[in-house]
Write a structure and sequence with these properties.
The chain is α+β, with helices and mostly antiparallel strands. 49% of the residues lie in helices and 11% in strands. It comes from Nocardioides marinquilinus.
Amino acid sequence: MAEGEGWGVRGPETSPGMKRRPDRHPSARTVLTARSPDDLVAVASVVLGFWPEESIVMLTFDAVRPFHARVDLPGPADPPEAAREVAAMLVAPAVRHGVGRVVLLVYSDDAERAATAHGALAEAFAGAGIDVVEALRVGGDRWFPLDAGPAHAGAPYDVSDHPFVVQSVVEGRVTHASRGALARTLDTDPRGLARVRARLASLREADDVVAESAWAAGVVVAHLDAGTAAPDDEAARLLVGLGAVPVRDAVWSVLTRERAREAVELLADLVRRAPDEHRAPVAALLAWAAWQSGDGALAWCAVDRARAVEPGHGLAGLVAEALTHAVPPSATDPDPGRRAGRDAG
């Protein structure tokens, strides 16, 4: 059984006004049961939210909370030890969380590179006492058992209308063509950015950070309740306010796990309209909300956006650390006030 919700580890891996946001992330947790290689290929794309390319994907079983992970497949120019390093990167969280069995999917048309990676993976998981129940190389239109050797002809697959994929569409989940396509969902909206910049030009800096913190938290809660996006004047004020740690923490404190899926939509919209100088805090909050909602891939994309403009951003680093070590969202402090009081500037 592979769960359609989880978090990821990564290797050396919009309109103005009160527009209603679509509910892309239903709150109910979906459980997907895989019984064949085609099922596994479909599961991987659904739980990741994108179609992997030149990647190693690990699906885990038997842990208290199973999770999935994706790392980049070592490239032809990487040193020989790169495959062992990637294998160690995947084994570490599996051991930490008591995983008993894994499925490994290597996405590449390069059979030799996939075999090298598989050798390192098999050795590492065997050494950790974790059973690899299935290992496949997934090419453009065929999957190949990695244990069968290069002579195996493989089997054709087409998961475009697979029940898991159809179910995810019905539930409002989007599976992107690649990780790059997922990352591009956070690209700047030029018109939205221009409108926000126009509001910023006439915006005065808040004199009372306590009052501004209360306003920001209240506005965010109101939009989460209503399922609406922030209009441009509010967006500008929020983006400026979030640059102050007390204001950022006030908003962080209302991003509870129960509201995380709704918060992803609200914050992603703000990221798309944020000027570079105001993007890091809101992108870090988006990373937090995405991780809390079980969308590790989007969380990593948001971390990248924050670090692109502020490499040492504290909250972005906190989320990155949690993702790298496959820390489950349930391990975070349930008291939002204590959580936001930590030093994650």
